[in-house]
Each structure stands twice: as structure tokens, then as C-alpha cells.
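Q: My collaborator sent me two sequences in one message, no labels, and asked for predicted structures for both. Can we handle them in order? The first one she listed is below.
A: Yes, handling them in the order given. First sequence, followed by its C-alpha cells:
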Amino acid sequence: MVSVQNQSWIARELVITSSNDESLIGRSGLVIDETRETITLLENNKQVIFGKSSIEFNIGGSDATIVGKLVRQRSEDRIYRKIRSE
């Protein structure tokens, strides 16, 4: 099974679970774009951009928490990269 970390996140629900900025925790929305450094969500019909390096999040209701600073690459590179499980 492919890890959620290695799948496309576009059109999937994202929930921020941890951040240095406590006001970001619990925010959620539909992923509409991803760059090397940012994730853009559609939250309450507004586009909101978050820096990957400052958040940890879940995608699509998954129990797996993704650490944003560890996935700071283009989505094309991330999807095709082999991640070793430990």
C-alpha cells in the first residue's frame, strides 16, 4: 500500500494537527495547490496558504501525521520518491 505521504494531496481534506502558531491547529480545508514550500487550502470558500515548514497535518482522515518540514519538495518529486519505512 502506498503511504499517504507519497500520494497526490490535491482535492483531499487536510487538517492541521500541530504548529508553532497555536491559532493554526485544527484548521482544515480542501487542498487545491501544493508547491515546494506551501500548501493552499480552500477553507470556507477562501484560499488560504500555509507554509509546510511550520505545520504538521493529516490528509484525508488518515491517522498518519505528516511533518511538513520533511516534505518540502515539489509534489512531483514527493509522489515518485521511495520512502523507507522504519
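Q: And the one she listed second?
A: Here it is, processed independently of the first:
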Amino acid sequence: MPIHRIHLSRRRLMAGSAAAAAFAVTGSPAIVRAQAKEVVVGGAASMAPWVNGTFASAFQDKYKCKLTFEGTRSLVNLEKMQKNKDKQYLSVVMMDDPVMILAVQEGLLEKLTPAAIPNLAKTRPEAIDMDGMWANYLQPWQGVAVNAKALPSGVATWAELYDAKYKGRLVLPSLQNTEGLANLVMAAHLETGKPFAQAQFDIDAGFKKIKALKPNILTIYTQIPQAFNLLEQGEAWAIPSAFSSVVLPREKEAPIKMYVPKEGIFVGPAGIALVKGGPAPELAKALINEMLSADMQARLQPETYAFPSNVDAPAPPGIPAGTPVINLDWQFVAKERGEWVKRWDREMAI
């Protein structure tokens, strides 16, 4: 049974031509394979081990080129593109969706198409943003992290976290943190009963519901290490909306475990885009195509602990078939988030 996906975005991928589909099967043009060039990619510093390892090894061998990865924060990559607009040296950027929106607004990205990026036709439509200005590749997923000693049976639903048995035992991310948004959207869904596609826009309902969670909150964090120290020590029992990329690597070393609530999992913003005017454009397109391939996403999953965007790639272990997969509309988030953070600070102070 296939994973059930929830489409929260109104963005749609325009259908590719038959030629694009054929291209996806036969591979990239011979001219790209013959190139002996360098492609420079800007991404998060935390990506360096797998980009420079598994991915670079496969890509460099296939295309006989050099891949140089510059690891830093998304906003720093944005600044690099802004400063070098007339002569870009980055060919590809891997950034969070909210920063991608800023790059689009400044005309720094080139639209992706199935003709140029064949694997775009195999990418979940809700993982393609702004009609192809960028695409999500491997997305960290969000469930509920628990202390396995305190909660040996785990957490079955997001709704149960409002139960009085969790009084003073929950740690929540601030709305300043990307992972914090999921709790607010889930609260809106629980309050209204609306599908996530509509609930995410009913933020008043989200705040109304989540304030009822305050008696159960031990603390609200902005720094992840602080939060997970409390969880690992057992002082906290659960962290709702934790990222898989933080929890799963620690499961073998600490008494914590990630759970998939029945309402579904959220997937985080992890975009890849083509820099407008960047060098080696054909090689850059080939790189994006490889990152969106089912084979590469399956190979990288054990290292990234992320959910794939290619419909043919397998879901990560531990996510049952039929689990709803929830994407946020990051354009809406980017527009409204500043006011939400102010409201959060006023209404969720403990």
C-alpha cells in the first residue's frame, strides 16, 4: 500500500513532455558526460559528510568532473548569490524553502523543467515549489521523540500529548525554530477538524488549541542540544515535532526513540535549485537530476534520515504504509511568520 501524501500547496508541476519521460530513462546527454569541469554547490555545513562522500563519489565518477561543496547557512549562500549576481561562481544551491523564496524574489534562480531535469517528473508535486523554481529532494521528517524509559509504548497520536498525564513533561520548540511550526499547524487541525490543507491557514484556531498545552510544557527551546539533554535524562518525556535527522542518529546511544503518530508526519523544507547565470549549467542540471533520482535518494536515506521526494524511492524504515505526509505552504509561512513569532512570545510564555 503506498504512502498517502497530503498536498498542502497550491503549486503545481506542469506536465513534462513525452521526450522528457524518455530522457529520464535514457539518462543525461553525452555532452554532459564528456565535460571535465567543476561544479560548485552551496549547502548547509551539516550536509558535508554525505555530499562529499556518497553523493560526490557517485556523481564525479559518472560525469568525470569535480564537485566542490561549500557548507554554510542558507542565508550565507543567499548573500553569495547576491554579491556575485553579475558573475556567479555557485552553480547549485541547497537551501531551506523560506530562503529560496527570497532568492526567487531577487531573480537569482533559474526555473527547473522536466525537459532539463527529467527526474522532476517523478518528484511529488507538493515537493516542487513556485512552479519549478526549486524542488525538495530529501526532507527531514517530524514525528514525536520520546524518552523510551518513561514512555516504553511511545506516543500513538499528536492529540494525546494534551492529556494531563504529560503535565510538566513536554519540551516544545519555539516558533522561531523551523520545527516549531508543525505543532501550531497540528493544533489548528485538532481544534477545527479541518484537513491539513485548510487547517494550516487557520492560525487563530492553532493558537487557541496550543495554549491548552501549556500545563504540560516543561520548557520551550530555541537550542536543540538543551532540549535533548532534558529528554535523554528523563526530565522530559517527549518532544513533539522533533526532526528525524536529530533523533534517529541518537537512538543507539541514548534512551530516546522516534514515533510516527497516526495523524501523520510533517516533512521539512530542503530545497535544491539552479543558480541563474551560474557556471557549467548542464553539469548543474545533471547534478540536480541525480539528487532527485529514486536510486540516489534511496542510497542517501540511511545517512540523511530523511523522507524522499521521488515517488519511486522507498519510505524510510519505521514509517508505516498509508502514513499521511504533510507539507507546509512555505510561501504562506514566510509571509506570516514574523507576526506568529511575536504572538507566540506573548501567548506561550511559561
